[in-house]
UniProtKB/TrEMBL annotation:
InterPro entries: Bact_HTH_transcr_reg (IPR050679), Tscrpt_reg_HTH_GntR (IPR000524), WH-like_DNA-bd_sf (IPR036388), WH_DNA-bd_sf (IPR036390)
Protein name, UniProt field: GntR family transcriptional regulator
Gene3D superfamilies the UniProt entry points to: Winged helix-like DNA-binding domain superfamily/Winged helix DNA-binding domain
Record domain HTH gntR-type: where: 5-73
Domain of life: Bacteria
Keywords: DNA-binding, Transcription, Transcription regulation
Record Pfam families: GntR
Keyword Transcription regulation carried by entry: yes
SUPFAM superfamilies reported in the protein's UniProt record: Winged helix' DNA-binding domain
Length: 78
């Protein structure tokens, strides 16, 4: 029997898989929460949980009022 995996974890893994496959590249903007919720047939809250965890882990970066993007390599500061 396959163990139950919460939908937010499946969404998180799907986004990670798309990044690993090169479908999503550093700097790419993700669809809106509403669009992702429709794509995964779930609520915005579920999508936000997956996105927030990916932001906290540094995989994605949120830009207030602009959107969520795939994080690039660390920026060099001079």
């Amino acid at each position: 029997m396959v163990p139950y995996v919460p939908l937010w974890r499946r969404i998180r893994q799907d986004i990670l898989d798309r990044i690993s496959a090169g479908i999503l590249k550093p700097g790419d903007k993700l669809p809106t929460t509403k669009e992702l919720a429709e794509q995964y047939d779930t609520s915005g809250v579920t999508v936000r949980k997956a996105i927030d965890i990916l932001i906290e882990s540094g995989v994605l970066e949120g830009r207030q009022g602009i959107g969520v993007f795939v994080a690039g390599p660390p920026q060099q500061t001079s």
